[in-house]
Write a structure and sequence with these properties.
- The structure holds 2 protein chains of 2 kinds.
- Chain A is mostly helical.
- Helices cover 76% and strands 0% of the residues of chain A.
- Chain A has one domain (2-114).
- The longest helix of chain A is centred in the C-terminal third of the chain and has 30 residues, at 85-114.
- The mean pLDDT of chain A is 91.
- Chain B is an alpha+beta fold.
- Among the domains of chain B are: 368-434, Penicillin G acylase, beta-roll domain (Roll), CATH 2.30.120; 587-621 and 628-713.
- In chain B, 31% of the residues lie in helices and 17% in strands.
- In chain B, the strands form 7 sheets. Chain B has an 11-stranded mixed β-sheet, with helices on one face.
- In chain B, a hairpin with a 2-residue loop joins strand 11 and strand 12 (355-361).
- The N and C termini of chain B lie far apart (63 Å).
- The chains are: A mainly alpha, B alpha+beta.
């Protein structure tokens, strides 16, 4: 359980480096690292990363949206089949979650290959 | 096994990342790269500006000679305080880019013929037409000429560097949202781009011509009937500059041009051709409106305050972001407020502490087609008098996103480019375009507006205008000291009568524009006894003016209404100026409807018809948003008009261009020549007169509203009105605006087009300006300043323009400050 929490915190915190020059897919290597550093079972590893990635993207988007009073999200939603702001935020979270999840999975399997003793 | 898992997982992760940063096509539309677009670090969420507070940071700006302070007011208008003009326009470039960068990119891309670079093959034909009409050629020529003016070029370069300083400092996260949606990057600004913007304005304002349609009409009807249908002067109209004997003694030599000899072969039309008529009696309003604007100045003798008033409302395509950007520039030499175009230093329409000015389009035809006499089948040589000339080939390279570039060879003759030679069946296939816009402009052209910005009196105004060529504008002007003036300024060819009305013979140099009207002879007027000057795109002068000129559209109805109101106004105020700009009264309806109603035999109308006729009779000719009579009138009038000219509309339906008689002429014939052969409808056995046409059209109108009961509504809802985003993205457009107005009324609103900036200036002790445009200062759809003035505009309200005397003048309207340091 500790590793689960570490993994979530690690990805969520370091994911913010994307604000400071890391490209948007920088979340993937961050999650890889987490998958390597905090060995968990396959399912837990993925869900910890998914949770962190989704939170990271959702929370950041949510803050922009809240400050903006939802003006832009309302318009962009129309571009995507009339999604409302909450649905857009949800979609953003899912995308972040998926990216982190796959990243962590890869990190975990890399550890399996390069570090012999499994947790 | 573990290795396989790792490889599989790497592959999967890579695939997901790839999928999320690639553009995907779904049907006709393409989705932006989802990961790049949705991530909250550099995607669209970054464009969601805080709805409150002030966002702009101080910055270092290379090339400044001193610090520059920009004060923003609550409409996000930047007020620039600089020590000199070069610093001021450098900062103007920076702040304009800061708010409107994508607009700057897309509008110059269009005239550069570079849309396909970002949008792919679907815009190739648009790009091709821009290139083939010589837009880039014209822009290059403009830059060549401007380069000869050291001062003008210095300011243009400062502006350019200002834009580029902003572009260079941008991270991908800060790109305007449209770049993210269309997945491309901003590029540096250049003086050539400024020229492309000027050419785009020329394309809008100075490209009008009816050469082919007139040539076909002449071939179809013969000279006498042509003159009967298409007279050039409406006797009811007032010219901008009346004849006061000022040109009585001029010696004028017109060119010895042979009478043009157009041939109708251009589109397979010959006199007496057999017509095929369709029964399709469309009642869709026929699109007659091109471009128009109003401006006027009232002398102190006719105003309540004793101070001159100046008004301007240029009618242009209404888009989001808007074509205009409000601005104030203060230097030790000048203090000027107005609206600017994105890409041009200074202001186009505005005022300072001493003077105010505004513009409307002149609309003289400066775009002629010449038929080339080819010598060889490859069309590389052509005849010019006794000589044989070679065409010059210009190869245009059009880059296409995701495809190989398209190379297009354009032939240039002594007249200009052969635009349509790639279309084997185009009637102008063998014709070259002679267009003033292609010529090198006066080298000081760029300085006209900068000089006006700094002008202090009438002499400054005339000096500023002298360098101005194209697109020709009616410059209205007023000073605090009491002068009012108007000048029809531009470069106008000296034409023989009717020259340029038809396609001309391009094998004779005598058909060329051999001379231009001297600047001191362009129509102008200062301080007339009547106490006002005005223009509304009507004729510049009455027919007594010794030079011949023509237009594809001299609108007169707005002008007549404005003339009537100004003539009777003895104590004009800011409020009476507002009511004039917002006036929905249509002189055209007032001319036509009484005639049509008189011709209507009420005994032949049923109960419903009588109700409609009564409603029309009670109408005050105002196209108010909630008025229900205008839709009836529109459908009835358009139906009358189209039904009368069935000879022509049937050809137009076959895509053959034949000129439609102007509406004023139609109304005149209705009234004065109701038995004219043209009222006979050719598909019916009997011979109709105007009375029959009026009745038939009334019945069609009744039928239309029976079939479309939802259209029996107020004028605003009937017409509909939208302000579209420049890339036609509905989500970034305002589709819900309900407004009145009509192209024949001073408040010239039609679908997608209308008063793009309403300005009223009172030149008193302290100059007062009112203004509004249907948009907002920010180009960012995620900003509260994106469209915050649309509703103000739609309601017919104005903003008090904050005209600061100094950067530290206190005002409750100030939002924040942005300081630029060298």
């Amino acid at each position: 359980m500790r590793h689960f929490i570490y993994s979530v915190l690690f990805i969520f915190a370091l994911g913010h480096l994307c604000h400071f020059g890391l490209p948007w897919w920088g979340l993937v290597p961050v999650a890889m690292l987490a998958g390597w550093l905090f060995p968990l079972s396959a399912g837990k590893n993925f869900s910890a990363a998914f949770l962190a990635g989704a939170l990271l993207w959702f929370v950041n988007a949510y803050l922009y949206n809240a400050e903006n009073d939802g003006m832009l999200a309302t318009k962009v939603g129309l571009l995507f089949q009339g999604l409302n702001a909450w649905q857009l935020l949800g979609l953003t979270g899912v995308l972040g979650g998926v990216l982190a999840g796959f990243g962590a999975m890869t990190g975990r399997y890399a550890r399996d290959v390069f570090v012999s003793n499994r947790a | 096994m573990r290795i396989l898992k790792l490889l599989f997982s790497l592959l999967l992760t890579g695939a997901v990342v790839w999928l999320l940063q690639t553009t995907h096509k779904i049907g006709d539309s393409s989705l932006p790269p989802l990961g790049a677009f949705f991530n909250p670090f550099s995607g669209f969420w970054k464009n969601a500006e805080p709805a409150k507070g002030f966002l702009f940071h101080n910055a270092k700006l290379k090339g400044l000679s001193g610090s520059v302070e920009v004060v923003y007011d609550d409409m996000l208008v930047p007020h620039i305080f600089a020590e000199n003009m070069a610093d001021a326009v450098r900062v103007q470039g920076y702040v304009t880019a800061q708010h409107r960068l994508w607009q700057m990119d897309i509008s110059t891309r269009k005239s550069a013929g570079r849309l396909s670079e970002i949008l792919g093959e679907r815009t190739l034909q648009i790009d091709r037409m821009a290139r083939r009409r010589g837009m880039v050629f014209a822009a290059e020529n403009a830059v060549l000429s401007w380069s000869k003016s050291a001062e003008g070029m210095r300011l243009l370069q400062a502006y350019t560097e200002g834009v580029n300083a902003y572009v260079e400092g941008l991270s991908a996260a800060e790109y305007p949202i449209e770049f993210k949606l269309l997945n491309y990057k901003p590029e540096p600004w250049s003086v050539l781009k400024t020229a492309l913007l000027v050419e785009a304005m020329a394309e809008t304002l100075a490209a009008g011509e009816n050469d082919l349609a007139s040539t076909n009409a002449l071939a179809l009807f013969g000279r006498d009937t042509f003159n009967y249908l298409y007279p050039e002067w409406n006797p009811k109209q007032q010219a901008i500059v009346p004849d006061t004997g000022q040109w009585r003694d001029w010696q004028v030599t017109l060119p010895p041009v042979a009478a043009p000899e157009p041939s109708g072969l251009l589109s397979g039309i010959s006199e007496g051709a057999k017509f095929k008529f369709s029964l399709d009696e469309r009642t869709d309003p026929y699109d007659d409106y091109i471009v128009g604007s109003n401006n006027w100045a009232v002398a102190g003798s006719n105003t309540a305050s004793g101070h001159p008033l100046l008004c301007n409302d240029p009618h242009l395509n209404l888009t989001l972001p808007s074509i205009w950007f409000q601005l104030q520039i203060h230097t030790p030499e000048q203090n000027c407020y107005g609206v600017s175009l994105q890409g041009l230093p200074g202001m186009i329409i505005g005022f300072n502490e001493e003077v105010a000015w505004g513009v409307t389009n002149v609309g003289h035809d400066v775009s002629d087609w010449y038929k080339i006499a080819w010598v060889d089948n490859e069309r590389t040589q052509y005849k010019l008098d006794a000589e044989t000339r070679e065409v010059q080939k210009r190869v245009e390279t059009i880059k296409i996103k995701g495809k190989e570039p398209f190379l297009d060879t354009v032939r240039y003759t002594v007249w200009g480019p052969v635009v349509y030679d790639y279309e084997p069946t185009h009637p102008l296939r063998d014709c070259a375009l002679r267009w003033l816009t292609h010529d090198q402009p006066s080298r000081d052209e760029m300085n006209t507006f900068l000089f006006l910005n700094a002008g202090k009196n009438y002499d400054d105004y005339r000096r500023a205008l002298a360098a101005y060529d194209c697109p020709a504008q009616n410059f209205v002007f007023a000073t605090r000291s009491g002068d009012i003036a108007i000048t029809v300024q531009g470069r106008f060819p000296v034409r023989a009568p009717q020259q340029g009305r038809f396609v001309q013979d391009g094998s004779r140099w005598s058909n060329a524009w051999l001379d231009y009207i001297p600047t001191e002879r362009v129509p102008a007027m200062k301080n007339p006894a009547r106490g006002f000057v005005y223009s509304a795109n009507q004729h510049s002068t009455p027919p007594t003016y010794p030079y011949y000129y023509l237009s594809n559209d001299f609108d007169d109805y707005r002008g007549r209404r404005i003339f009537d109101r100004l003539s009777s106004m003895r104590a004009a105020t800011l409020d009476s100026m507002k009511t004039m700009q917002l006036d929905n009264f249509s002189q055209r309806a007032a001319d036509a409807l009484p005639v049509m109603l008189r011709m209507l035999d009420r005994s032949k109308l049923g109960a419903e018809g009588l109700k409609m006729a009564d409603e029309l009779a009670a109408w005050n000719y105002r196209y108010d948003a909630n008025a229900t009579a205008p839709p009836l009138y529109e459908v009835w009038f358009d139906s009358c008009y189209l039904r009368t000219w069935d000879e022509i509309t049937s050809l137009r339906a076959e895509k053959k261009q034949v000129l439609m008689p102007e509406r004023w002429r139609f109304i005149e014939l209705l009234e004065k020549d109701p038995n004219s052969i043209f009222f006979d409808h050719l598909t019916t056995p009997q011979r109709e007169t105007a009375h029959d046409i009026v009745h038939q059209s009334f019945a069609l109108m009744q039928q239309y509203f029976k079939e479309n009961p939802d259209k029996r509504t107020g004028w605003g809802a009937f017409r509909g009105f939208a302000i579209k985003h420049l890339a036609l993205i509905d989500a970034f457009s305002r589709l819900d605006v309900v407004v009145g107005g009509h192209s024949s009324a001073p408040n010239a609103i039609k679908q997608g087009n209308g008063p793009s900036w309403r300005m009223i200036v009172e030149l008193g002790e302290r100059v007062r300006g009112l203004g509004v445009y249907p948009g907002g200062q920010s180009g960012n759809p995620g900003s509260r300043y994106y469209d915050n003035m649309v509703d103000t505009w739609a309601k017919g309200e104005y903003n008090n323009l904050l005209f600061l005397k100094s950067a530290d003048e206190p005002s409750s309207q100030i939002l924040g400050r942005q300081v630029f340091l060298p």
